[in-house]
Amino acid sequence: MTVTIGGVSGTAERYGVADDEVDIERVRLSMLARTLDPGTFRLLERVGVEPGMHVLEMGAGTGSVSAWLAERVGPQGRVMSTDIDLRFHADMPPNVIVRQHDAARDRLPAQHFHLVHARAVIQHIPERVEVLAKLADALRPAGAMVIEDGAMAEFAEQTLPEPLGSVHRMVATAAMSQWRDPNAGVRVLGWMRDLGLQDLDARGSVRIMRPREASGEWWFLALERAVPRLVEAGAVPESDAATALEQMRAPGFAMLGPTSIATIGRKPASSEVQP
Ligand SMILES: C[S@@+](CC[C@H](N)C(=O)[O-])C[C@H]1O[C@@H](n2cnc3c(N)ncnc32)[C@H](O)[C@@H]1O
Hints:
alpha/beta; elongated; binds S-adenosylmethionine
């Protein structure tokens, strides 16, 4: 079965959005931003974003975090907002440099940024450890790396009323095989440690997904799109498919969302770097 969630379609090797998926991807990215932005802004405030800073927002999607960072760093600061695909990126104020940039293949300026941030990006990139090393190189001494990434195992395996539970597990299993590392969020702390980053901290948060709310709609839309294909493939009887869709649209329905893990590390100040 082919499922498209998170911009990875079919058996594509790398992240990519097919032309007929552009509209749904735009909706999905804006729901993701609406759901995650408040927590991300609190996280970045805790790490510290000051006027005049140079900041990298990698895999920016719509650019909602870049726009917030631009306000915080002010006219003397700079935000570099990159993505491999800029079709969904909003217009930005003058202190934001928007770049089409493949995190795995393209270069970044060395020792340049006070802060680098990527949300729901590393898990999609096969060369994720190399990308983190590039981000560390791009940080100034004492600069902060903030990576928010998913941990999908509990989300995929949770118990739900049948037949919705079976449909959910089938679609989640197919989707997880396309997310390059569906539990990357759990591993980022170790990768940062191996890179010599310090003051490490990792915290997870889980949202409850409900119908007609941004936190859940990205997944409910994916299920709705997958169900006809499951029926066609003979994996789910038509009557079960209809019941499953009714169950997840019932007004009181709620389920566990994916865990998002925010990992923070700091590059050693120059005086602390070992020879
Ligand atoms: C799930 S979306 C997250 C978007 C945004 N960070 C957010 O949280 O709202 C993943 C983003 O990573 C981008 N991406 C995937 N592979 C990439 C790569 N190799 N280099 C740069 N961006 C990439 C995608 O184009 C997409 O915008």
